[in-house]
Amino acid sequence: VLFENHVSGNQFFFDTTSRISRITEDDTGNIWCISINTGKIICYEPTTNQWRQYINHSKQENFKTTGLNTISVTGNDVWTGSATGLGLTKYNYKTGSLLSLTRNDGLSSENILAISKGNKDQLFLATQSGVQLLNTSSNQLHAIVPKNENIDWGFAYIQYYDSISRQLFYGLNDRIIMIK
Predict the structure, then answer these.
(1) Residues 6+ apart with CB under 8 A from 136
(2) What digits encode the pLDDT tens for the residues 98-112?
(3) At 40, is the secondary structure helix, strand, or coil?
(4) Does the reported pTM lie above 0.85?
């Protein structure tokens, strides 16, 4: 067992209230975890064999922490989303800066169910109103699959992007959808 529950001082990073909702790997091999109940963001850095907790909640008062169910990392930016309507947040873990994107910024829904990295500077967002592509350099959003009455996107928690075939896969409640 590489890791069971890391202790920082006398405090566990995760406890029985945490409930890890997503785990992802960044481009440098670091493993990132997010807790849906507490909003804790933890990163394991294999090169140093260190676990680090990010987001100092006392300094980031505008960062909504509960209900975060999805995470993706591009460079120094940690992207988080919430199925409960908190929108999309970009947190730069080097500088501590925050940027929140909402419907006012072009999100089709503030209920973000899944985030997947695409090719360079791309994130695919599964929302309750369909699928959007985010250019992470410009923060521009584009609808890929708009809301369709025959598809219940409210179950699009499982998303995968195949960078070789450039295909998106969604596991919904009643079907699998492939988008090329």
Answers:
(1) 74, 77, 79, 90, 121, 122, 123
(2) 898 999 999 999 999
(3) coil
(4) no
